[in-house]
Amino acid sequence: MDTAGAISERIRTGQVSSREVTEELLARIADDTQVNAVVEVRREDALAAAERADVMVTEGAAVGPLHGVPMTVKDCFDVAGMHTTWGNPAFAGNLAAHDAAVVERLQRAGAVVVGKSNVHTMLADFGQTANEIYGRTNNPADLGRTPGGSSGGGAAALAADLTYLEYGSDLVGSIRLPAAYCGVYGLRPTNGLVPLRGFQVPGTPYLPSELPNLSTIGPLARSAADLRTALRATAGPDAPYSYHLRPPRHTRLQDYRVGVFGRQVELFFALHGDSDSELSLADLLDLERRRMRARRKWQRYFEDVDVFLCPTSFTVAFPHGSTTIDGLPYETQVFWIAHASLTGHPALSMPIGRTPEGLPVGGQVIGPWHEDDTAITFAELLAG
C-alpha cells in the first residue's frame, strides 16, 4: 500500500481519483473481520469530500499536501457528526458537534477523514486496545497478540492497509508502543506543539496545550516523511498566533551525532519516585520542578548530540491479556518511552526489523526540544 505522500501525489497528478482510492479503502474496512481496527466510518461524507478533492484537481486549484488522502483518527478526537466515545459505554451515544483542531487542520491540508480507529477504554492502557463498545483490536502480524494501546486501532489499521494515515494520542507511549508492535511509524511531538482542542473526555472542558501536561497528540504513518507532512499540517497554536517548525539540524545521515543508551545512563534516572505514594500539592509542585530540571538536563545533552537512540519497548507484541512479559511486570514496557513523556521531548518509533516469527521490532529516536524534524529526518535517512 502506498504512503500518504505517494497516494496524494498520484491524486494531484490525475493518475487516480480520490473517490477511487476512498472507495477502495472503505471496501477493505468493510471486509475486515479479523483485525477490528476501524470501528466507525462516515461513508457518504467521505465520498463527498473525495469528489470535491477530484473537482479541485480538474479545475487546477491550489491543493494541500494531503490532498484527497483518506485517513482515520483515533476515537478520542471530535469529528462533527461522528461518535466520540473514548471506548466508554457511558459515551456510546455522544455525537460531536464540531471538529477537533487537528481534524480541521488535516482536512484543510486536503485529507479525507473516513472513520475512527479503536481505543482502549478511556485510553487507559498503553499495552492493549479493547473496550465494551467495539471489542478488541488484534495485531495484523499475529491475531493472538496485542497491537498495543491505546492507539492500537490506528497502528493496526496502518499495518493492515485499512488507512493511509492516522492521528493518535500519547500520554505514556500510546502512539509509540502500538507503532513498534505493529511495524509502523509513530511520533509523539514536542509537548504543546499540537493544539488539544477537541481532544477531551466528553463533557469536560478543553485543556489548553500550554498547561503543564504529559499528554500530547501526533501522527502514525507508513513513513517518516508522512509523519513530517502530518505534523506540519497540524502543529502550532490557533490564529492569530503562528509557529514554524525548526528545520532539521542535518540532511545527511553521516552528519548526525548519535547518543545511545549506556553512556549517559543518569539521564534516564533524572526523574524517579514512588509511584504508589500519595502526593500532596507540594509534592506535585516539587515533581514539576524536577521535571523541568530533567528537561534542562536533556537539553544540555542535546548540545553534544543530535538524537538519542534506544528501543521503544523491552519486547515485541505480546499475547492478549498478558500481565507479565518474559517474567517481568507488565508495567516495565513503559521504561523506554516514559522519559520523553516526562520531559516533553519529541520522540518517534520506527520499524527496524522483524523477529524470525515475523513480529515487528521498533526503535525509538528522541530529539531536542522543538526540533521534531531533526528526529524525523534522522529516521527518514536511517530507513533509506
From TrEMBL:
<dbReference type="Pfam" id="PF01425">
    <property type="entry name" value="Amidase"/>
</dbReference>
<dbReference type="InterPro" id="IPR052739">
    <property type="entry name" value="FAAH2"/>
</dbReference>
<keyword id="KW-0378">Hydrolase</keyword>
<dbReference type="GO" id="GO:0004040">
    <property type="term" value="F:amidase activity"/>
</dbReference>
<protein>
    <submittedName>
        <fullName>Amidase</fullName>
        <ecNumber>3.5.1.4</ecNumber>
    </submittedName>
</protein>
<feature type="domain" description="Amidase">
    <location>
        <begin position="20"/>
        <end position="261"/>
    </location>
</feature>
<dbReference type="InterPro" id="IPR023631">
    <property type="entry name" value="Amidase_dom"/>
</dbReference>
<dbReference type="GO" id="GO:0012505">
    <property type="term" value="C:endomembrane system"/>
</dbReference>
<dbReference type="InterPro" id="IPR036928">
    <property type="entry name" value="AS_sf"/>
</dbReference>
